[in-house]
UniProtKB/TrEMBL annotation:
Secretion signal span: none
Domain of life of the source: Bacteria
Organism: Mesorhizobium zhangyense
Keyword Membrane annotated: yes
Residue ranges crossing the lipid bilayer per the database entry: 30-52, 141-164, 169-186, 192-210, 217-243, 249-267, 345-362, 368-385
Residue ranges that the Swiss-Prot or TrEMBL entry lists as coiled coil: none
Protein's recorded name: DUF2029 domain-containing protein
Record bears the keyword Protein biosynthesis: no
Amino acid sequence: MAQSQGTAIDWAMGTGAAEALGRAASNRTLLDRIAAVFFLATFLFVGAYTWVRPDYNWDMVAYVATALENRTESPEQLHAETWKAIGEGARESQLYNLQYGNPYNRHQWENPADFESQLSMYRVKIGYIELLRVLGPVTGIVTAAILSSVLPLLGVGLICLLWLRQENALQGAIFLAPLLVVADLFHMTTAVTPDMLLAVVSMGAIYLLARKQDIAACLLLFLSVFVRPDNIILIFALLLTAIAFGWRILPIAVTFVASFAACMLIAKFGGHPGWWAHFYFSCVEIQNSMANFHPDFSLAAFVRGYARGVTVALIDNDWPPLFLAILAGWALLWRAGRTGTGRENALMFALAIGTLGKFASFPLPDDRFYFVFLAGMAMLLVVMWKPRFDIAPGKA
């Protein structure tokens, strides 16, 4: 057996395969292209899978219903139009789960008025809702929702590739792709919610900030609160960072004030029930109807909500260990003297405190709520590291 193995190895060496492999492994251009193709293929696969098999979930139903509100005149009509649109695309098993999968879903399926009352927590994503309304007459409302997840996904991929290429770090795409998947890239895309649209706007802003194009970045950050108002947390984290690191404060300060005012107006005119009612619904106890739901503040319920968030995040989600792993990688790069520019380190700081602030402000445990922060940190980490496979360790 040993002789056979030796013969096979000798034969392979004799054919020049090892020499060819060695040349390929030292060809930076080839390895850069392989990494870029792998990264792009990951995004194309996720996009194709989402297009073919989107995840019809409750949030998707609620967003579709919210987008249809301006075309209906009663809760009953809205209910009928929403479920007609969902039923045309959802598989039978998905539809059954949406309507009868748990007591809450069944109640919403059987009570149009209560179903409509839930939408006060979805109307505040007005940028996303308006996009569905613009695309809906052309593509159909459900297809519009799917496209609003797939196209931003591809946008995020292109921003990352452009950034890696400009920083001569394309081989880092081999590491960045799985990091983004762990950060919830796949599930948040197939879930068909505003999260991918928020991701492309926010990643664009982070990229522009890294390039010191602050005005353009601030315009994108302002737009981001119309996709998800809770992105004010990222803007606030960047404001604190600008103060701490001596950036030009005026652009980000104006952006924060304008974004905060926009969030207040969005909540008022969208009929949002308020932070505590929303907190109680999402973190303490789900409500079949949000009509006139204004619970008194309870310290016990407040603590219970945070305890639930911590427990579920640690047991069922990936963002806490990924957050710690990225911070550990940043520390190791610091020790090795490879921490990148001052702007990149400042952005790492902003995204780190933003991650903590996001959970502290509203302890939802799901990975998708932290994707913007972790994706930005992962991107910056790879840009600082600039891993190379075509040269020996220590010579990069």
